[in-house]
Each structure stands twice: as C-alpha cells, then as structure tokens.
C-alpha cells in the first residue's frame, strides 16, 4: 500500500515539475515582443545583440527565474505557517509578514534613501521578523494562548497597522510613492537578475532548512504534547520555523514586493494531491507555488496588453475565492 502511495506521489511531483519547466519556457517565449522557441534557443546559443535576444536574456529569463523562486518560497512559507499555527488561513500575507517587510522597505527608501539591493534584503528581513514577532506576541495574549482564531485576528491587525503606516508615509512623500507604488502591488516586471542573485543565498538556506525539518514537522503536526513526549525541543523547533518563514517571505518581498495568496492557496492544493506528510508536501508545494506564480505572470502580460497588470493583482484575483472558501470551511469546523 505504501509503495503504491509513494509511486502516486512521485508521479504527481514529476508531472508538476514538468509543468513548472514548461511554464518557465512559456514565460521566456511569450510577451508583447513576438518571439519563438527557435529565436529563444538562438538567444542563448548564438547571441547577436538584436532587440529580441536582449529581451529574452535580460528581461524574460530573470523574470521567469524570479517568479519560480518567489512562488516556491511563498508556498513553502505558507505550509510551515499553517502547520505551526494549525490555522488553514496562515500565510505571510495574512499574518502581517509581507506587510512588515514592505513597511521596512518603504521606510528605508523614504527616510534613508536606501537604493542598494543588499540593503533592501536586510531591511526586508528585519521588517518580516518584527511583524512575525508582533503577531506571535499579540496572538498569545490571554489564558488560552495562541489559537487559530486569535492568531488570525492578530495577523489581520498587524497587517492593517503596517499597511496604514506604509500608506501614511507614501501620502507625505510623493517621490517615494512614484518609486515603490508598482512594487507595493506585487510585481516582477522589470526585475533584474542581480536582485535574485542578492537574495538567492537566503532563499536557498530557507529551502534547505525546510526540507531538513520535514520529519520534525510531521511530529509537530500531531501536537506540542506529542512532540515533547517524543523528545523534540518544541521551542527550538518553532524558532527554526520562524527563521524559515522570515528568510523565505522576507527575501521574496525584497525582490517582488508583497505578493499575496500563494501561501494560502498552494498548501491546500498540495495536501489534496499528496497528503499531509511534509516530506512530500513541502517539495510539491514549492513546485506548485513556482508554477502558479509563473502562470499568473504570463496571464498578467495579456489582460491589458500592451500594458501589464502587476502579478500581485493576478494572484489576488485567483486566490480570493479560494480564501473565502477556506475561511468558511475552516471556521465552520471551529
């Protein structure tokens, strides 16, 4: 029985991996400038400096890689947040992590004229960490401690707080508004490969930690008491999960801005396909997250062509109905 189940899981992961690769290829080929598979191949094998070759190498390739990396990171962060909080609505966007990172970046631009990519990365991590800590502290107040309802309300409150601060700064600083408005809506348009290279080491550390932690997350999913009884250091484990979320969500916001709903939608889809075993769930969620963000980005190029819709708008359009469904289903059970 286990062999049959594992074979099914392997087949699903292989299919999603192929879909991810195909979507990356489509992301490189498709767009306002007309290109083809042959032209794309020639751009990498016999570059001639033409406009089409330049667009493929310097615009579309970085964009495809960034979409795959950010989608993967947000989906894995969503899996870990949902397991840690036992809340089906947990994600970096809903729990204020994205809003905190965004607020920190806007402050850095507005008050300190920060323009360095590495500085953006560290500022984004700091904002994500402060927001995550604030949600944990606010949600844990009271006798019952952290409950799914309390942490959701705390996340909504912290998200609203940081979003209000961000909007307040932008209202009084038009120069900063012009610079970050498109970024705040969540976008990978115009992002350069250097931006991904800057944050990639941190994303890679987050991915590797997430994969290593999967057996322990299976135990933690059974409850804190069970995990303690089996010898796990629950406090250290939760701290490590927090570090993973900060690395993945903070790095993603530094590159692409606060893209929502990937961290909510993908974990539920992955569980429905492959089950709750994190050894399989985390890799599949990462692949699905990258695929979904690539598909959303491709769609964003065509809705109002020749203009583009920010990919964050596309993910919100896709994810909002699913979010409502999960909210009704999850809290009706509670």
TrEMBL record:
<feature type="transmembrane region" description="Helical">
    <location>
        <begin position="12"/>
        <end position="32"/>
    </location>
</feature>
<protein>
    <submittedName>
        <fullName>Iron complex transport system permease protein</fullName>
    </submittedName>
</protein>
<dbReference type="GO" id="GO:0022857">
    <property type="term" value="F:transmembrane transporter activity"/>
</dbReference>
<feature type="transmembrane region" description="Helical">
    <location>
        <begin position="241"/>
        <end position="269"/>
    </location>
</feature>
<keyword id="KW-0812">Transmembrane</keyword>
<feature type="transmembrane region" description="Helical">
    <location>
        <begin position="93"/>
        <end position="113"/>
    </location>
</feature>
<feature type="transmembrane region" description="Helical">
    <location>
        <begin position="64"/>
        <end position="81"/>
    </location>
</feature>
<dbReference type="InterPro" id="IPR037294">
    <property type="entry name" value="ABC_BtuC-like"/>
</dbReference>
<keyword id="KW-0813">Transport</keyword>
<dbReference type="InterPro" id="IPR000522">
    <property type="entry name" value="ABC_transptr_permease_BtuC"/>
</dbReference>
<feature type="transmembrane region" description="Helical">
    <location>
        <begin position="119"/>
        <end position="141"/>
    </location>
</feature>
<keyword id="KW-1133">Transmembrane helix</keyword>
<dbReference type="Pfam" id="PF01032">
    <property type="entry name" value="FecCD"/>
</dbReference>
<keyword id="KW-1003">Cell membrane</keyword>
<dbReference type="GO" id="GO:0033214">
    <property type="term" value="P:siderophore-iron import into cell"/>
</dbReference>
<comment type="similarity">
    <text>Belongs to the binding-protein-dependent transport system permease family. FecCD subfamily.</text>
</comment>
<dbReference type="GO" id="GO:0005886">
    <property type="term" value="C:plasma membrane"/>
</dbReference>
<feature type="transmembrane region" description="Helical">
    <location>
        <begin position="309"/>
        <end position="327"/>
    </location>
</feature>
<feature type="transmembrane region" description="Helical">
    <location>
        <begin position="199"/>
        <end position="221"/>
    </location>
</feature>
<feature type="transmembrane region" description="Helical">
    <location>
        <begin position="281"/>
        <end position="303"/>
    </location>
</feature>
<keyword id="KW-0472">Membrane</keyword>
């Amino acid at each position: 029985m286990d062999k049959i189940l594992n074979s099914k899981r392997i087949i699903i992961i292989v299919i999603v991996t192929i879909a991810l690769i195909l979507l990356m290829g489509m992301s490189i080929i498709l767009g306002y400038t007309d290109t083809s598979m042959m032209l794309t191949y020639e751009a990498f094998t016999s570059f001639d400096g033409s406009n089409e070759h330049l667009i493929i190498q310097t615009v579309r390739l970085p964009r495809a890689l960034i979409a795959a990396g950010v989608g993967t990171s947000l989906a894995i962060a969503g899996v870990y947040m949902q397991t840690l909080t036992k809340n089906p609505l947990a994600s970096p966007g809903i729990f204020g992590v994205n809003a905190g990172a965004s607020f920190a970046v806007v402050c850095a631009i507005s008050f300190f004229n920060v323009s360095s990519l590495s500085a953006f990365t560290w500022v984004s991590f700091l904002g994500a960490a402060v927001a995550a800590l604030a949600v944990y502290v606010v949600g844990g107040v009271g006798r019952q401690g952290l409950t799914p309802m309390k942490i959701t309300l705390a996340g909504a409150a912290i998200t609203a707080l940081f979003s209000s601060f961000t909007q307040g700064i932008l209202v009084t600083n038009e120069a900063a508004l012009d610079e970050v408005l498109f970024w705040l809506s969540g976008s990978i348009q115009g992002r350069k490969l250097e931006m991904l290279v800057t944050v990639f080491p941190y994303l890679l550390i987050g991915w590797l930690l997430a994969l290593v932690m999967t057996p322990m997350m299976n135990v933690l999913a059974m409850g804190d008491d069970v995990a303690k009884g089996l010898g796990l250091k629950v406090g250290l484990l939760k701290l490590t999960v927090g570090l993973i979320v900060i690395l993945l969500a903070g790095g993603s916001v530094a590159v692409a801005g606060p893209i929502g709903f990937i961290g909510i939608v993908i974990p539920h889809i992955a569980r429905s396909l492959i089950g709750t075993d994190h050894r399989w769930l985390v890799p599949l969620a990462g692949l699905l997250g990258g695929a979904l963000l690539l598909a959303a980005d491709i769609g964003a190029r065509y809705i109002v062509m020749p203009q583009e819709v920010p990919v964050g708008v596309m993910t919100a359009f896709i994810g909002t109905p699913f979010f409502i469904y999960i909210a009704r289903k999850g809290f009706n059970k509670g």
